[in-house]
Automatic annotation (TrEMBL):
<dbReference type="GO" id="GO:0016791">
    <property type="term" value="F:phosphatase activity"/>
</dbReference>
<dbReference type="InterPro" id="IPR050275">
    <property type="entry name" value="PGM_Phosphatase"/>
</dbReference>
<dbReference type="Pfam" id="PF00300">
    <property type="entry name" value="His_Phos_1"/>
</dbReference>
<dbReference type="InterPro" id="IPR029033">
    <property type="entry name" value="His_PPase_superfam"/>
</dbReference>
<protein>
    <submittedName>
        <fullName>Phosphoglycerate mutase</fullName>
    </submittedName>
</protein>
<dbReference type="InterPro" id="IPR013078">
    <property type="entry name" value="His_Pase_superF_clade-1"/>
</dbReference>
<dbReference type="GO" id="GO:0005737">
    <property type="term" value="C:cytoplasm"/>
</dbReference>
Length: 200
């Protein structure tokens, strides 16, 4: 009988990206974001067996250097994209987000509910765990989607957790036999006071 395999998934919340209204897919990294992305590359290149990323430019730009440095595949997965907050720019971002955390089935006009985003995010992660048994997978994604995935396994990962995330941030999840065994943060920002909390 084959022993259950252990798959490690390092979730990378993208580095700093200047907000541009209605440019969720295309906005890239700031100067600080590019500097921090290089630090993320140094942090994970030695362990990565494959890099899988959201199609959004800020997520891809944060992790593509890892794939290059480790000489491993870079795979784009649409289901790792950020939760779509609304169809148009939202003026009061903080209250709009807090409302969704408190009401997972709710959505803003043209947007996606947290329940919907969580379902596709968890499905994407489960596919990766099944596809890469015994490997270390680096996932380039977003603050809200990452928090929602963790929340599906452990409700302690909620609004307060999301609001403390830095930009970038790295959390390592270990799956044993396909089941989550634990989550630990492996990233210490160069300057915690410059953390980009409170933004997608």
């Amino acid at each position: 009988m084959q022993a259950p395999s252990t798959t490690v998934v390092s979730f990378v919340r993208h580095a700093h990206s200047p907000y541009v209204p209605n440019a969720e897919r295309s906005r890239g990294l700031s100067t600080r974001g590019r500097r921090d992305a290089a630090a993320v590359t140094a942090h994970l290149a030695a362990v990565a067996d494959v890099v899988v990323t959201s199609p959004f430019e800020r997520a891809r730009a944060t992790v593509e250097g890892i794939a290059d440095a480790a000489d491993v595949p870079l795979v784009v997965d649409e289901d790792l994209r950020e939760r779509e907050l609304a169809g148009e720019h939202v003026e009061d971002f903080d209250s709009a987000v807090e409302h969704l955390w408190g009401n997972p089935a709710a959505s803003h006009p043209g947007g996606e509910s947290h329940a919907e985003a969580q379902e596709r995010g968890v499905a994407a992660v489960e596919r990766l765990v099944e596809a890469y048994p015994g490997r270390h997978v680096v996932v380039g994604t977003h603050g809200t989607l990452m928090a929602l995935v963790f929340n599906a396994y452990d409700p302690r990962y909620g609004y307060e957790f999301w609001n403390t995330l830095s930009m970038p941030d790295v959390y390592e999840a270990t799956f044993f036999g396909g089941e989550l065994a634990g989550i630990v943060r492996t990233w210490v920002p160069p300057d915690e006071t410059a953390a980009g909390a409170g933004s997608d």
